[in-house]
Structure formats: structure tokens, C-alpha cells
Design goal:
Blueprint (H helix, E strand, L loop, with lengths): L1 H26 L16 H7 L3 E5 L10 E2 L2 E2 L15 H5 L12 H11 L3 E7 L25 H11 L3 E7 L16 H9 L6 H4 L5 H15 L5 E5 L4 H4 L2 H14 L4 E2 L24 E5 L14 E5 L20 H13 L2 E7 L9 H17 L7 E2 L8 E6 L2 E6 L7 E6 L7 E10 L7 E2 L8 E3 L5 E6 L11 E11 L3 H8 L1
Bound molecules: ligand FHN.
Ligand FHN binds next to loops.
Keywords: Glycosidase, Hydrolase, Signal
Family: Belongs to the glycosyl hydrolase 29 family.
Enzyme class: hydrolase
Length: 510
């Protein structure tokens, strides 16, 4: 009887194992246009991207003229979608560019403000869904060249930001409401599709020169951007959820390769293309498409597991869902510098970059609330930047007081919730080696570089170990580190010591 039970158990185990192996094999579907590599890119450009920590996004276009309001009415829509708000006719909107004259625009000033805020990269909307181009594209008349302003805004910004040492990425919307060949929507008819492929709105060959199908138009514009602005580091795509675009996996994939070939090191996120089955961001096998994950828009992952080990960025609005300039900021909660700093640290503690969006007005002014936010974040970054730049997830588990980041063997504890007893209890990880333990070797405040004291100040009870072998330190928080409600950073360094070495042990715990 016993032998029979053992035999049945053995056969069941084999069956389960075989089943799993078969499923694994079945799950990998051969793809032509899925991810072309797995794991992170390790070249210098991508390493630099990974160290940015903080970025700035700028949404700017003709939608900044109405700023969410038209003929006395206010739209609660995202301001950059104003053309679809129902408050303005398409014709009215498509003629706004004739008034676009941002006399207050000063690219150097914007770049200096971004620099002071601590941004290391900037993403600029060269063309949003409305199709208006902030560079003088030769493939359409709907550009800055035909506004009273005339000058090439993309060039001004690329030059000014690059001069400040801030890398520039060009936002480009695949959706283009202005181009007659563009067909919106997912369920396009075969007639729509024919237009998308073959649309020719031009009266003669001369007019048609340079204009091909919408696909060719898009390709031409992208090549034009990389040709005109060779200093940029990458392209940031949007609107690629468009049904027609998603059906073009092979064509878009070839285009991506072409763009990469003409601009070595080019960085493209996961919003550019779908695989042949229409899967975006991650392909049918679950592998990330292209260089970093762009799924985190206005939301941060909660855990490292959620990021699936990918590079990622999170783009964040200051009001709830307004990217372009909206005159009325009373429509939703407006984040504070404190909120944004907390998100910035959280993003970096989970290995991502955090990008804060700005929406300048129709004259080229950055609104005063945004200026104030940039200044406050910049002031915090001036003191605490080491906890952000090049710092990623730490060996510590998430703790109630805030977030921790790590660079080499240095760990930064960013404290957002100061305990009322002014004792910051820090839980230290266990060593993998049973004879070893981690102890804190150095503790100091980042703002002052003054050593922090642990409870007992050199006497006993500074250090605890629980039954599971975790160690805890209580760091004493003097009032002065908590300046006017600002989050502060404590730097610690961990050291592994042999717990049987009594001398080292005593030294470490007192
Ligand atoms: O529709 C756009 C929106 O206006 C804005 O540009 C954001 C930025 O990531 N992207 C789209 C929504 O995902």
C-alpha cells in the first residue's frame, strides 16, 4: 500500500513538472516585431538616462492661447485637448496659430529654472495631438514658421537646455488631428484605411512634393527632427494607441530601426510601437518593447516587483490632469512641492525617473505657482541631491517614515513622516551569512553633514535585534533638521561584521 502511494505521488509530481515545462514552452510565441532584446540596455547613453532622477516635461502649443477657456466658458477637459472640448469649433481652433506670438518666451530663462529645480532631462512637445509643430517642419504649413512669432522654438529650447547640461527629449504625437490623412480611432473602415495609406489632398505634384501618405508624413517629420536637432538624446512618443498605427507593427518597427541607425544611442520608450498582435508596452511574451517602460503616467508603482525589473519613468501633472496651460487651477487639487518631492524620492527608490510637467501660457510665461514649485523643489535638491542622482533602490525594506535610496554602500533615508518622539527607528537587513550581521557604521544628516546620534549616545540600548535576526537603530532627530516641514535625509553606511567578534560587535552597537 505504502509503495503504491509513493508511486502515485512520484507519477503526479512528474506530471505536474511536465505540464509546467510544456506550458513554459508554449508560452513563448515567436515574434517578429516584439522586444528586440530583453534586460536593460547597458550602453553609456542609457546609463546616463538611469542616473537622471528628475526630469521636466513641457506641454506647449496653441492650446495655451485659450488656456481651457473660450467665449466666457471654462472647460474641465485637459487644456491641451481643447480642440475636442466642444467649446471651440475645429475651424476656430485650427486658426489659433495665426495669433501665436509668445513675446515673453525666453528659452534660457526656462532652462535656468529647470536647472535650479534639479532637472537633468527635459521632454518637449514638438507636436501634440492637434498637429501644430513648434518647429518649422517642411512637411506641413501648420507650424511655428507661419505664426507671428516665426522663430524655431524647438531649436531655441534644445540649445538653451543643452547649454545648461540638461538632456533634451522630443515628445511627438502620432495622432495628428490636423493632417487630412490621419484617421483616428481603433475600428477604422477599409475606406478610412485606404485614405490613411494613400490620401492625397494636393492639387498638383508641386503641392504634393514632400507629402506622402500619413505614414510617410510621420516618418519624414521624425527624420526631420533628428536631422535638425542632432543634440537630442531621445524621442518620447504619445498617441501611439491609435488603431491605424497599431496595425502597422512591421512598418513602425523598421522605422524605429531607421531612426536608431541615424542617431546612435537614441533612447525610445515603450510608447512607440505595438507588436504584430497589437500588444503595446510589453509584447505578447511579456517582454518590454524598446528601452524603458512608459506605462507610469500620473501614477507611481507601489513596489519594485510592479516595475518588473525594467527601467521606467513617471510623468506627473501638478494639477490633476492638466498638461497644457489652463487658466483655472481651481478645478482640481494642485500638488504641493512636498507632494512632488515625496513622489520624486519614491520613484527613485523604485529605480525610476520622475518627470514634472509644466504648461506655460500663450505668451511664454511659466505660471507663478509652477515657478514657486520649481524653486522649492530646487532648494530641496540643492541640499539633498545625493539621495536622488544615481541613487536607486536600497537594501532596506520600505519603512513608515519614508523611502530609502542607495548608491554603492551609502544609503539615504529620506524622512517624510517625522516620528513625534523624534526617534527614527531604522530596520536593518539580515546578512545572508549566518555568522555575520549588518551594523550601521556611519550616520549623518545630509543637510549639515553632522553626525547623527543614536539613542543612548554611546551607551547601551542603541541597537536591537529581534527574534528573526533583524537589527534596528533608533536615530535621534534634533529639531533643527526638520526645517519648516521639509523632508530631510539621513545618510547611513552599513557594515557587515562577524557577530562572534565581540570587540567589533560592542563597538557597533554602542
Ligand atoms: O493625451 C495625452 C495627454 O494630453 C498628455 O500629453 C499625456 C502626457 O503623457 N499623454 C497623453 C495621455 O496619455
Amino acid at each position: 500500500m505504502k509503495t503504491k502511494i509513493i508511486l502515485i505521488a512520484f507519477l503526479s509530481a512528474c506530471w505536474i513538472w511536465q505540464g509546467t515545462a510544456q506550458t513554459d514552452e508554449k508560452e513563448r510565441i515567436p515574434l517578429k516585431h516584439g522586444a528586440h532584446y530583453t534586460g536593460k540596455r547597458t550602453d553609456a547613453d542609457m546609463k546616463r538616462w538611469r542616473e537622471y532622477g528628475l526630469g521636466q516635461f513641457i506641454h506647449w502649443g496653441v492650446y495655451a492661447i485659450p488656456g481651457g477657456q473660450w467665449k466666457g466658458k471654462t472647460s474641465t477637459y485637459a487644456a491641451e485637448w481643447f480642440r475636442s472640448s466642444g467649446l471651440i469649433t475645429k475651424n476656430e481652433y485650427d486658426n489659433l496659430y495665426k495669433e501665436f506670438n509668445p513675446v515673453a518666451f525666453n528659452a534660457e530663462q526656462w532652462a535656468k529654472q529647470a536647472k535650479q529645480m534639479g532637472a537633468r532631462y527635459m521632454i518637449f512637445t514638438t507636436k501634440h495631438h492637434d498637429g501644430f509643430c513648434l518647429w518649422p517642419s517642411k512637411y506641413t504649413g501648420y507650424t511655428i514658421a507661419n505664426t507671428p512669432y516665426k522663430k524655431d522654438i524647438v531649436k531655441e529650447l534644445v540649445d538653451a537646455y543643452t547649454a545648461e547640461g540638461i538632456d533634451v527629449y522630443l515628445y511627438f504625437s502620432i495622432i495628428d488631428w490636423n493632417h487630412p490623412g490621419y484617421q483616428a480611432g481603433k475600428g477604422i473602415t477599409s475606406e478610412d484605411r485606404k485614405n490613411w495609406e494613400n490620401y492625397n489632398p494636393f492639387r498638383n505634384e508641386k503641392e504634393k512634393a514632400g507629402y506622402e501618405t500619413f505614414k510617410e508624413f510621420t516618418r519624414n517629420q521624425l527624420i526631420e527632427l533628428l536631422t535638425n536637432y542632432p543634440k537630442v538624446k531621445g524621442l518620447w512618443f504619445d498617441g501611439s494607441w491609435d488603431g491605424a498605427w497599431m496595425k502597422e507593427a512591421a512598418w513602425v518597427d523598421v522605422l524605429g530601426e531607421e531612426l536608431r541607425a541615424m542617431h546612435p544611442g537614441l533612447i525610445i520608450g515603450s510608447r512607440f510601437r505595438a507588436d504584430e498582435n497589437g500588444n503595446r508596452h510589453v509584447d505578447t511574451n511579456g517582454d518590454l518593447i524598446d528601452d524603458y517602460d512608459q506605462r507610469f503616467e500620473r501614477s507611481l508603482p507601489s513596489t519594485l516587483t510592479e516595475t518588473e525589473g525594467n527601467d521606467w519613468d513617471c510623468v506627473m501633472t501638478i494639477p490633476e490632469n492638466q498638461w497644457g496651460y489652463h487658466r483655472d487651477w481651481s478645478l482640481s487639487y494642485v500638488k504641493t512641492p512636498y507632494d512632488l518631492i515625496e513622489m520624486l524620492v519614491k520613484a527613485n527608490s523604485l529605480d525610476g525617473n520622475f518627470v514634472i510637467n509644466f504648461g506655460p501660457d500663450g505668451k511664454g510665461n511659466i505660471r507663478k505657482e509652477e515657478t514657486e514649485i520649481a524653486r522649492e523643489i530646487g532648494n530641496w535638491m540643492t541640499v539633498n541631491r545625493d539621495a536622488i542622482y544615481g541613487a536607486h533602490h536600497s537594501a532596506l525594506e520600505k519603512q513608515d517614515w519614508g523611502y530609502s535610496t542607495q548608491k554603492g554602500d551609502t544609503i539615504y533615508l529620506s524622512v517624510f513622516n517625522k516620528p513625534m518622539n523624534n526617534l527614527l527607528r531604522v530596520k536593518i537587513p539580515r546578512s545572508k551569512n549566518k555568522d555575520m550581521i549588518f551594523v550601521i557604521e556611519k550616520v549623518e544628516f545630509l543637510s549639515t553633514r553632522e553626525p547623527a546620534l543614536v539613542k543612548g549616545d554611546g551607551k547601551a540600548n542603541t541597537y536591537y535585534r529581534d527574534k528573526s535576526g533583524f537589527s534596528y537603530y533608533d536615530i535621534i532627530l534634533p529639531e533643527k533638521v526638520q526645517k519648516a516641514g521639509q523632508p530631510f535625509v539621513i545618510v547611513i553606511r552599513l557594515k557587515e561584521i562577524n557577530k562572534n567578534n565581540q570587540e567589533a560587535y560592542q563597538q557597533a552597537i554602542t
